[in-house]
Specification:
Helix content: 25-40%
Largest sheet: 7 strands, mixed
Number of helices: 9
Radius of gyration: 21 Å
Distance between the termini: 35 Å
Order of helices and strands: EHHEHEHEEEEEEEHHHEEHEEH
Strand order of the largest sheet: 2-10-9-8-5-3-4
Shape: globular
Number of strands: 14
Structural class: alpha/beta
Protein backbone atom coordinates (compact mmCIF):
# COMPACT_ATOMS: atom_id res chain seq x y z
CA UNK A 1 0.00 0.00 0.00
CA UNK A 2 1.47 3.32 -1.08
CA UNK A 3 1.00 6.22 1.32
CA UNK A 4 2.29 9.73 0.73
CA UNK A 5 3.16 12.25 3.41
CA UNK A 6 0.11 14.50 3.31
CA UNK A 7 0.84 18.05 4.50
CA UNK A 8 -2.65 19.33 3.64
CA UNK A 9 -4.17 22.04 5.82
CA UNK A 10 -7.57 20.32 5.78
CA UNK A 11 -9.05 17.90 5.13
CA UNK A 12 -5.79 16.60 6.44
CA UNK A 13 -3.84 13.47 7.26
CA UNK A 14 -5.34 11.14 9.82
CA UNK A 15 -3.66 8.53 12.04
CA UNK A 16 -3.16 5.33 10.07
CA UNK A 17 -4.39 3.34 13.06
CA UNK A 18 -7.69 5.24 12.95
CA UNK A 19 -8.12 4.65 9.23
CA UNK A 20 -7.43 0.95 9.68
CA UNK A 21 -9.88 0.65 12.58
CA UNK A 22 -12.58 2.46 10.60
CA UNK A 23 -11.90 0.16 7.65
CA UNK A 24 -12.18 -2.93 9.85
CA UNK A 25 -15.53 -1.72 11.20
CA UNK A 26 -16.85 -0.29 7.95
CA UNK A 27 -19.16 -3.17 7.04
CA UNK A 28 -20.26 -4.06 10.56
CA UNK A 29 -19.74 -2.02 13.73
CA UNK A 30 -19.35 -4.38 16.65
CA UNK A 31 -22.16 -6.92 16.66
CA UNK A 32 -24.62 -4.52 15.02
CA UNK A 33 -24.40 -6.10 11.57
CA UNK A 34 -24.43 -2.56 10.15
CA UNK A 35 -21.98 0.15 9.22
CA UNK A 36 -22.15 3.30 11.35
CA UNK A 37 -23.15 5.02 8.10
CA UNK A 38 -26.29 2.87 7.99
CA UNK A 39 -27.51 2.79 11.57
CA UNK A 40 -30.18 5.01 13.08
CA UNK A 41 -28.91 7.96 15.06
CA UNK A 42 -31.56 7.00 17.65
CA UNK A 43 -30.15 3.49 18.02
CA UNK A 44 -28.38 2.40 21.20
CA UNK A 45 -25.26 1.71 19.12
CA UNK A 46 -24.92 5.29 17.89
CA UNK A 47 -26.01 6.87 21.16
CA UNK A 48 -23.17 4.97 22.84
CA UNK A 49 -20.74 6.22 20.16
CA UNK A 50 -21.89 9.82 20.67
CA UNK A 51 -21.64 9.67 24.45
CA UNK A 52 -18.24 7.99 24.35
CA UNK A 53 -16.93 10.64 21.94
CA UNK A 54 -18.19 13.37 24.25
CA UNK A 55 -16.72 11.69 27.34
CA UNK A 56 -13.33 11.20 25.69
CA UNK A 57 -13.12 14.81 24.51
CA UNK A 58 -14.12 16.03 27.96
CA UNK A 59 -11.35 13.92 29.49
CA UNK A 60 -8.68 14.86 26.93
CA UNK A 61 -9.29 18.60 27.19
CA UNK A 62 -10.16 18.58 30.90
CA UNK A 63 -13.47 20.28 30.12
CA UNK A 64 -15.10 21.53 33.36
CA UNK A 65 -18.55 20.22 34.33
CA UNK A 66 -20.20 23.60 33.70
CA UNK A 67 -19.54 23.29 29.95
CA UNK A 68 -21.58 21.55 27.28
CA UNK A 69 -19.96 19.68 24.37
CA UNK A 70 -21.91 19.77 21.10
CA UNK A 71 -21.33 17.97 17.80
CA UNK A 72 -22.81 20.17 15.07
CA UNK A 73 -22.75 20.61 11.31
CA UNK A 74 -21.97 23.51 8.99
CA UNK A 75 -18.25 23.86 9.63
CA UNK A 76 -16.53 26.63 11.56
CA UNK A 77 -17.95 29.12 9.06
CA UNK A 78 -21.46 28.52 10.42
CA UNK A 79 -20.09 29.32 13.88
CA UNK A 80 -19.30 32.81 12.59
CA UNK A 81 -23.09 33.32 12.62
CA UNK A 82 -24.05 31.13 15.58
CA UNK A 83 -21.72 32.91 17.99
CA UNK A 84 -23.22 36.40 17.60
CA UNK A 85 -26.78 35.10 17.27
CA UNK A 86 -26.46 33.32 20.60
CA UNK A 87 -24.05 35.49 22.57
CA UNK A 88 -24.99 39.06 21.63
CA UNK A 89 -27.56 39.04 24.42
CA UNK A 90 -26.90 42.06 26.65
CA UNK A 91 -24.90 44.99 25.27
CA UNK A 92 -24.99 43.76 21.66
CA UNK A 93 -21.25 44.57 21.51
CA UNK A 94 -18.28 42.30 20.77
CA UNK A 95 -14.52 42.64 20.36
CA UNK A 96 -12.24 41.00 17.80
CA UNK A 97 -8.55 40.52 17.14
CA UNK A 98 -7.97 40.22 13.39
CA UNK A 99 -5.04 37.87 12.88
CA UNK A 100 -6.02 36.26 9.60
CA UNK A 101 -8.69 35.61 7.01
CA UNK A 102 -10.93 33.49 9.25
CA UNK A 103 -10.90 35.98 12.12
CA UNK A 104 -11.80 38.69 9.61
CA UNK A 105 -14.73 36.68 8.27
CA UNK A 106 -15.96 36.01 11.79
CA UNK A 107 -15.80 39.75 12.54
CA UNK A 108 -17.70 40.63 9.38
CA UNK A 109 -20.47 38.19 10.27
CA UNK A 110 -20.83 39.49 13.82
CA UNK A 111 -20.99 43.05 12.48
CA UNK A 112 -24.26 42.06 10.78
CA UNK A 113 -25.92 41.46 14.14
CA UNK A 114 -24.30 43.88 16.56
CA UNK A 115 -21.58 46.42 17.24
CA UNK A 116 -18.32 44.65 16.44
CA UNK A 117 -15.06 46.38 17.37
CA UNK A 118 -11.57 45.53 16.10
CA UNK A 119 -9.21 45.73 19.07
CA UNK A 120 -6.07 44.96 17.06
CA UNK A 121 -5.06 43.65 13.64
CA UNK A 122 -1.89 42.27 12.08
CA UNK A 123 -3.08 42.81 8.51
CA UNK A 124 -0.52 45.62 8.14
CA UNK A 125 2.23 42.98 7.94
CA UNK A 126 0.34 40.23 6.10
CA UNK A 127 -0.80 38.63 9.37
CA UNK A 128 2.76 37.59 10.21
CA UNK A 129 2.45 38.23 13.95
CA UNK A 130 0.03 38.31 16.87
CA UNK A 131 -0.58 41.93 17.92
CA UNK A 132 0.10 43.07 21.45
CA UNK A 133 -3.04 44.43 23.08
CA UNK A 134 -3.83 46.69 26.01
CA UNK A 135 -6.78 45.53 28.13
CA UNK A 136 -7.89 49.14 28.53
CA UNK A 137 -8.86 49.05 24.86
CA UNK A 138 -11.30 46.18 25.44
CA UNK A 139 -15.02 46.94 25.56
CA UNK A 140 -15.81 46.38 29.27
CA UNK A 141 -19.44 45.39 28.69
CA UNK A 142 -18.86 43.35 25.51
CA UNK A 143 -20.89 40.16 25.17
CA UNK A 144 -17.82 38.31 23.91
CA UNK A 145 -14.21 38.71 22.73
CA UNK A 146 -13.29 36.59 19.69
CA UNK A 147 -9.91 35.25 18.59
CA UNK A 148 -8.75 32.68 16.04
CA UNK A 149 -6.36 30.71 18.23
CA UNK A 150 -4.36 29.22 15.35
CA UNK A 151 -4.23 30.82 11.93
CA UNK A 152 -4.11 28.05 9.35
CA UNK A 153 -3.35 30.22 6.31
CA UNK A 154 -0.64 32.45 7.75
CA UNK A 155 0.87 30.17 10.39
CA UNK A 156 0.52 32.12 13.65
CA UNK A 157 -0.93 31.08 17.01
CA UNK A 158 -1.93 32.38 20.40
CA UNK A 159 0.18 30.39 22.84
CA UNK A 160 -1.73 28.98 25.84
CA UNK A 161 0.02 31.45 28.13
CA UNK A 162 -0.68 34.43 25.85
CA UNK A 163 -4.46 34.35 25.59
CA UNK A 164 -6.11 37.77 26.08
CA UNK A 165 -7.22 38.33 29.67
CA UNK A 166 -10.82 39.42 29.12
CA UNK A 167 -12.08 39.43 32.70
CA UNK A 168 -15.82 38.79 32.86
CA UNK A 169 -16.20 39.01 29.08
CA UNK A 170 -16.44 35.48 27.59
CA UNK A 171 -13.48 34.65 25.37
CA UNK A 172 -14.52 32.86 22.15
CA UNK A 173 -11.83 30.82 20.40
CA UNK A 174 -11.78 29.34 16.92
CA UNK A 175 -9.53 26.32 17.46
CA UNK A 176 -10.27 24.57 14.18
CA UNK A 177 -6.64 23.93 13.28
CA UNK A 178 -5.04 23.38 16.68
CA UNK A 179 -7.55 21.66 18.92
CA UNK A 180 -5.93 18.74 20.80
CA UNK A 181 -2.45 19.90 19.69
CA UNK A 182 -1.33 21.39 23.00
CA UNK A 183 -2.82 21.95 26.42
CA UNK A 184 -5.13 24.96 26.76
CA UNK A 185 -7.13 25.85 29.86
CA UNK A 186 -10.73 25.50 28.68
CA UNK A 187 -11.97 27.52 31.67
CA UNK A 188 -10.35 30.62 30.15
CA UNK A 189 -12.89 30.43 27.31
CA UNK A 190 -16.60 30.98 27.28
CA UNK A 191 -16.86 29.09 24.01
CA UNK A 192 -14.52 27.09 21.79
CA UNK A 193 -15.42 25.89 18.31
CA UNK A 194 -13.48 23.73 15.87
CA UNK A 195 -14.12 22.15 12.50
CA UNK A 196 -12.99 18.54 12.75
CA UNK A 197 -11.27 18.13 9.40
CA UNK A 198 -7.86 19.50 10.35
CA UNK A 199 -6.83 17.75 13.55
CA UNK A 200 -9.75 15.75 14.84
CA UNK A 201 -11.54 13.75 12.15
CA UNK A 202 -13.21 13.94 8.74
CA UNK A 203 -15.13 16.91 7.39
CA UNK A 204 -18.79 17.07 8.34
CA UNK A 205 -18.77 17.70 12.08
CA UNK A 206 -17.91 20.77 14.14
CA UNK A 207 -17.27 20.63 17.88
CA UNK A 208 -18.54 23.38 20.15
CA UNK A 209 -17.55 23.59 23.83
CA UNK A 210 -19.75 26.20 25.50
CA UNK A 211 -20.14 27.35 29.08
CA UNK A 212 -23.65 26.46 30.16
CA UNK A 213 -24.58 29.94 31.40
CA UNK A 214 -24.16 31.17 27.79
CA UNK A 215 -26.97 28.91 26.60
CA UNK A 216 -30.54 30.13 26.25
CA UNK A 217 -29.92 33.75 25.24
CA UNK A 218 -30.28 33.54 21.46
CA UNK A 219 -31.86 36.41 19.59
CA UNK A 220 -35.56 35.82 18.99
CA UNK A 221 -35.06 35.61 15.22
CA UNK A 222 -32.33 32.97 15.49
CA UNK A 223 -33.16 29.97 13.27
CA UNK A 224 -33.86 26.83 15.29
CA UNK A 225 -30.85 25.01 13.82
CA UNK A 226 -28.54 27.88 14.85
CA UNK A 227 -29.61 27.91 18.50
CA UNK A 228 -27.04 26.28 20.80
CA UNK A 229 -29.64 25.51 23.48
CA UNK A 230 -31.75 23.50 21.03
CA UNK A 231 -28.74 21.28 20.30
CA UNK A 232 -27.74 21.05 23.97
CA UNK A 233 -31.27 20.08 25.03
CA UNK A 234 -31.38 17.41 22.33
CA UNK A 235 -27.95 15.87 22.95
CA UNK A 236 -26.60 17.05 19.56
CA UNK A 237 -29.36 15.05 17.87
CA UNK A 238 -32.14 17.55 17.19
CA UNK A 239 -31.84 16.39 13.59
CA UNK A 240 -29.72 13.59 12.14
CA UNK A 241 -26.16 14.32 13.24
CA UNK A 242 -23.08 13.55 11.08
CA UNK A 243 -22.90 10.05 12.53
CA UNK A 244 -19.89 8.66 10.71
CA UNK A 245 -17.80 11.80 11.24
CA UNK A 246 -18.56 11.69 14.98
CA UNK A 247 -17.63 8.00 15.06
CA UNK A 248 -14.24 8.69 13.43
CA UNK A 249 -13.65 11.57 15.86
CA UNK A 250 -14.21 9.05 18.66
CA UNK A 251 -11.52 6.85 17.13
CA UNK A 252 -9.16 9.83 16.94
CA UNK A 253 -9.84 10.67 20.59
CA UNK A 254 -9.02 7.07 21.51
CA UNK A 255 -5.77 7.36 19.52
CA UNK A 256 -4.83 10.63 21.23
CA UNK A 257 -5.51 9.09 24.65
CA UNK A 258 -3.42 6.03 23.82
CA UNK A 259 -0.52 8.25 22.77
CA UNK A 260 -0.16 10.32 25.91
CA UNK A 261 -3.21 12.53 25.68
CA UNK A 262 -3.02 16.19 24.70
CA UNK A 263 0.20 16.59 26.71
CA UNK A 264 1.73 13.80 24.63
CA UNK A 265 0.58 15.46 21.43
CA UNK A 266 2.05 18.78 22.59
CA UNK A 267 5.45 17.22 23.29
CA UNK A 268 5.58 15.53 19.87
CA UNK A 269 4.27 18.62 18.07
CA UNK A 270 6.83 20.92 19.66
CA UNK A 271 9.60 18.53 18.69
CA UNK A 272 8.40 18.35 15.06
CA UNK A 273 7.97 22.10 14.78
CA UNK A 274 11.36 22.85 16.37
CA UNK A 275 13.19 20.56 13.94
CA UNK A 276 11.47 22.10 10.91
CA UNK A 277 11.76 25.73 12.00
CA UNK A 278 15.41 25.26 12.97
CA UNK A 279 16.21 23.99 9.51
CA UNK A 280 14.32 26.85 7.83
CA UNK A 281 16.15 29.39 10.00
CA UNK A 282 19.54 27.87 9.15
CA UNK A 283 18.83 27.73 5.43
CA UNK A 284 20.11 30.19 2.87
CA UNK A 285 17.20 29.51 0.51
CA UNK A 286 14.12 29.29 2.69
CA UNK A 287 12.61 31.98 4.86
CA UNK A 288 9.85 31.67 7.44
CA UNK A 289 6.99 34.13 7.05
CA UNK A 290 6.03 34.50 10.74
CA UNK A 291 7.88 36.19 13.61
CA UNK A 292 9.45 33.39 15.69
CA UNK A 293 7.58 34.07 18.93
CA UNK A 294 4.17 33.65 17.27
CA UNK A 295 4.82 30.62 15.07
CA UNK A 296 2.17 27.95 14.78
CA UNK A 297 2.98 24.37 15.80
CA UNK A 298 0.51 23.12 13.19
CA UNK A 299 0.99 25.20 10.03
CA UNK A 300 4.57 26.03 9.03
CA UNK A 301 4.72 28.67 6.30
CA UNK A 302 7.85 29.52 4.31
CA UNK A 303 9.03 30.89 0.97
CA UNK A 304 12.12 30.85 -1.24
CA UNK A 305 11.72 34.46 -2.34
CA UNK A 306 11.00 33.42 -5.93
CA UNK A 307 7.53 32.53 -7.20
CA UNK A 308 9.13 30.35 -9.87
CA UNK A 309 11.22 28.43 -7.32
CA UNK A 310 8.19 28.06 -5.02
CA UNK A 311 6.21 26.50 -7.87
CA UNK A 312 9.12 24.19 -8.74
CA UNK A 313 9.44 23.19 -5.08
CA UNK A 314 5.80 22.14 -4.93
CA UNK A 315 6.09 20.25 -8.23
CA UNK A 316 9.24 18.39 -7.20
CA UNK A 317 7.92 17.60 -3.73
CA UNK A 318 5.05 15.65 -5.28
CA UNK A 319 7.56 13.50 -7.15
CA UNK A 320 9.17 12.74 -3.82
CA UNK A 321 6.01 11.48 -2.12
CA UNK A 322 4.90 14.70 -0.43
CA UNK A 323 1.51 16.23 -1.15
CA UNK A 324 -0.22 19.55 -0.49
CA UNK A 325 2.79 21.72 0.32
CA UNK A 326 1.53 24.62 -1.76
CA UNK A 327 0.64 27.67 0.31
CA UNK A 328 -2.90 29.00 0.44
CA UNK A 329 -4.00 30.58 -2.82
CA UNK A 330 -4.26 33.99 -1.11
CA UNK A 331 -0.60 34.11 0.00
CA UNK A 332 1.41 31.67 -2.12
CA UNK A 333 4.69 30.18 -0.95
CA UNK A 334 4.66 26.87 0.90
CA UNK A 335 2.81 25.55 3.91
CA UNK A 336 3.55 22.32 5.74
CA UNK A 337 0.66 21.38 8.01
CA UNK A 338 2.09 19.04 10.62
CA UNK A 339 -0.95 18.13 12.65
CA UNK A 340 -1.05 15.44 15.35
CA UNK A 341 -1.22 12.65 12.77
CA UNK A 342 1.97 13.72 10.96
CA UNK A 343 4.84 11.57 12.27
CA UNK A 344 8.33 12.87 12.85
CA UNK A 345 9.39 10.67 9.92
CA UNK A 346 7.28 12.86 7.64
CA UNK A 347 8.96 16.02 8.88
CA UNK A 348 12.38 14.42 8.46
CA UNK A 349 11.50 13.36 4.91
CA UNK A 350 10.42 16.92 4.15
CA UNK A 351 13.68 18.34 5.50
CA UNK A 352 15.72 15.85 3.48
CA UNK A 353 13.89 16.95 0.35
CA UNK A 354 14.32 20.62 1.25
CA UNK A 355 18.07 20.13 1.64
CA UNK A 356 18.30 18.40 -1.72
CA UNK A 357 16.21 21.10 -3.39
CA UNK A 358 18.33 23.83 -1.83
CA UNK A 359 21.59 22.23 -3.00
CA UNK A 360 20.23 22.10 -6.53
CA UNK A 361 18.66 25.56 -6.67
CA UNK A 362 20.40 27.89 -4.21
Amino acid sequence: MKRVYNFAAGPSAMPIEVLQKAADEMVSYGDSGMSVMEMSHRSSYFIDILHEAKSLLKELMNVPDNYEILFLQGGASTQFSMVPLNLLAKSNKCDFMITGSWAKKAYQESARYGEAKIIASSEDKTFSYIPKVDPKDFTPDADFFHICVNNTIFGTRFKPENLPETGNVPLVGDMSSNILSEVYDVSKFGLIYAGAQKNMGPAGVTVVIIRKDLLGHAKDFTPTMLNYKIHADNDSSYNTPPCFSIYVCKLVYEWVKANGGVAGMEKANKEKAEVLYNYIDSSKLYKGTVVPEDRSLMNVTFITGSDELDALFVKESKKNGMENLKGHRSVGGMRASIYNAMPMAGVEALIDFMKKFESENA
